[in-house]
Amino acid sequence: MTDKRHVAILGSTGSIGRQALDVIRQHSDRFEVELLTANNSSTLLIEQALEFRPSSVVICNEAKYKEVADALQPHDIKVFAGMDSICALAGAADVDIVLTALVGFSGLRPTIAAIKAGKIIALANKETLVAGGSVVMPLAKKFNAPILPVDSEHSAIFQCLMGASGNPLTRIHLTASGGPFRTWDKDRIALATRNEALKHPQWTMGAKITIDSATMMNKGFEMIEARWLFETPPDRINIVVHPQSIIHSMVEFADGAVIAQLGNPDMREPIQFALSFPERLALDNRKLDFATLGALTFEKPDMEKFPCLALAFEAIGKGGN
User: Fold this and answer.
1) Which of 98, 139, 150, 170 could be stapled to 114 by a disulfide with Cβ–Cβ 3.0 to 4.6 Å?
2) Residue 203: its pLDDT value, please?
3) Judging by DSSP bridges, how do beta strands 237-241 and 258-262 pair with one another?
4) What is the rounded distance in angstroms from the CA atom of residue 259 to the CA atom of residue 269?
5) Residues in contact with 60: Cβ distance below 8 Å, sequence separation at least 6, in sequence order
């Protein structure tokens, strides 16, 4: 990667978007921000735009358009409103890579628009494939739009497959921290409070994904995402609880060999890898110290205690979108 890569960040005020901007801040010689978007967080969007000076910003909530426009248009930053604007600008000619970090189903439309424009997709919005994997993946092939995973688990699988020399995998081992309720019994989980569910033991994430991790619904989503990204049937995707969150996922091959990807729980690593792929850049982060790491443990997920995980396997087994 020699020339600057021009980046659109869809959902720049969320957890993934903010960490992506930290990566870009560390590598301003490699990345140029072309587009920032937010749903409601107008104040932070204005702050980000004034620092990174994108060509355009979009505020989805049209009621906040005037506030953002008044602040940014004097700085020659174009301001738009609404989802239609995001879809149009994600496919603009001056954008090389689109980081889709919108929350939930809202990521599907702009991701499809960027795919149809042939953009590189750095996919942090797993619901795009959960809801529409049977549509999105064929479109990506048709329009030659690479999809690079940003979820730490899927980035790990992608990186493991890079070391496979084209040999097909036999199983994916998708790791899960187990969330804050891993050691709780079912009756106690039923009485859990919102604040208890938001205390993830390893990762710092947005509220929605943190709650989904507490119920292990998020791991069900990630299993479905892995099914589409890596064209792997769900019966060859094994969920394994790994509380330390050091091994981000593993790939097994026909001879029984398993390749794993390890790292500290820091989402900036998979974000940067997707943005800079295939090059690896330096990152100001905490590196693994194997001498002080201690034990790495593994256990099976309790499908009865976390029924959302079982429901995800049932849903993908039925097929369709």
Assistant:
1) 98
2) 72
3) unpaired
4) 18
5) 37, 38, 39, 40, 81, 82, 83, 86
Question: Residues 78-137: pLDDT tens digits?
Answer: 999 999 999 999 999 999 999 999 988 889 999 999 999 999 999 999 999 999 999 999
Question: Hey, how many other C-beta atoms are within 10 angstroms of the C-beta on 117?
Answer: 17
SS3 49: helix
The CA–CA distances, whole Å, from 320 to 41, 132, 134, 224, 274 equal 35, 9, 7, 12, 28
Amino acid identity, residue 133? G
Among candidate residues 45, 264, 247, 69, the one with its CA nearest the CA of residue 159: 247
Strand order in the sheet with 147-149: 78-81, 56-59, 31-38, 5-10, 97-100, 120-123, 147-149
What's phi and psi for 93, nearest 5 deg?
-65, -30
Q: What is the pLDDT of residues 210-241, one digit of tens each?
A: 899 999 999 999 999 999 999 999 999 999 99
The residue count of the chain comes to 321
Residues 6+ apart with CB under 8 A from 193: none
98 membership: H or E segment, kind and range: strand 97-100
Q: How far is CA 163 from CA 120, 247, 260, 272, in A?
A: 22, 16, 10, 19
In angstroms, how far is the first alpha carbon of the chain from the final one?
36
Contact 87, 111 (CB under 8 A): no
**In what side-by-side order are the strands of the sheet with 171-176?**
237-241, 171-176, 247-252, 258-262
